[in-house]
Amino acid sequence: MASRWLGDSSASLDMEIHTDTTDFFRVEYGDVVVLRDTPYLVRQNAKEERFGVDEDVKYWVKRAIDLHSGDAKIIKLAFHEKFTSRIGDIAFECFRSPRKEARILDLVAGHGNFMQGFAVEDEKGNVVRVLDLIHGRPLSKYIEGLNVGHRTYFTEQFPGILEQFMACIRAIAFLHEHGEKHGDIRRDHIFIDREDHRYRWIDFDFNFRHRENIYAYDLFGLGNILLFLAGKGDVLLHDLRDQQSSLLDVLQEEDLNIVFHNRVANLKKIYSYIPESLNRVCMHFAKGANWYYESATQLHHDLEVFKNEWQT
Amino acid sequence: MNDDAANTGNGEKVFNRNILIAVDESANARRAVAYVGQLLGGLAGFNVMLLHVVPEPEEDFFPSTEEKEKWLAHYSEKVDGMLADYRQLLIEKGFAPDAVSVRSTLRYCPSMAACILSERDETGYSTIVVGRQGLSRSEEFLFGSISSKIVSHARKCTIWVVE
């Protein structure tokens, strides 16, 4: 069955068939993973690019082919990793949670703003997720690749992008309404599906022991993406310094991102044509904020207000 | 809810003298206990319950049930010691031993503040005491503040936030 994909290479001779995926390092190119009677041919390990530089190989995530249907799949094997994450100078305990991702896949089946797939246990009870491949690229790459000035971008492209992003915010509100957090909201965790142009959230296995507000970290992620989209990239203090920008004279401490103190949140001071109603939303994520969003619905509501004002 | 503030005949509310101190291992929790001890120790009629809510870890925070059980056993032992220590502190400040009770409970807590308030609702204590965590603005933004949420969501009781 696999020979069609492997050709006459010697890989087919060394092929191993795995029904126990506990040691995911042993699952290699050309091997077959059998999950609930369906064989998946492993093609390669997935890689993740962070901040446009290093590519980390994710050995527990395999690109594969469903040998029954011929469809390309992503197979995420169970990896119980615990680690300390740092956001600015704040450390918190995180872990990968295959069961959380499995629950969410179940919850969002058929939802257009999430990656699709299902979870299945291997013979040792490891929770493996079998995901549909999204043909497209991360939102971050798309924005970074736009070759227009900010004003043109903001008037011509941002309205459509915001519309799609607001659908993503509604999708996060949907998760929260069902007691789930995404856990790792980042600009490269939204993929733009080339087929239907929808924005889809990916990667829900990241988890952490929350403190008081279980959804605050997700809201922080949404805010960062909003600032990135409205600013057509991060507006960084060191870039302004490099440019010897006179805008540095008008920026104050409270205009900076509440957590990432090198990023500007008060975008209106940079781009004066940004409407006040949008900037007000952005300022909820600034050091000077005296009130924070408590739900994705509140954030969505304020963006709706901006959108309606802007359209009239 | 059987022991909440009642009304006297002239409309004035009557509060009971039962005080719930929500604690953990932090220095601010110890300050809250010491504060109650200094303020009310030696006065008759006050009862204190030291409460610790154990936030139940999510289902696969631990790779196996055995590891979860081991963690819980260790945690329980630690909490018992902590509560006994705080109880002793109150007794040393003048509380009668039978006026100080302890309670630890394992709960799934999307919000710790909501869990503490729910415990209060079950006991009907008139006063909750918590220590201020002293979070930075960034931390409060990212994770939320238990004491702030208790203050804004509490009903039918009074909150003391100890600095």
From TrEMBL, chain B:
It comes from the Bacteria. It holds the Pfam family Usp. InterPro entries: Rossmann-like_a/b/a_fold, Universal_stress_UspA, UspA. Residues 17-162 form the UspA domain. Signal peptide: none annotated. Belongs to the universal stress protein A family. This is Universal stress protein. It comes from Desulfatitalea alkaliphila.
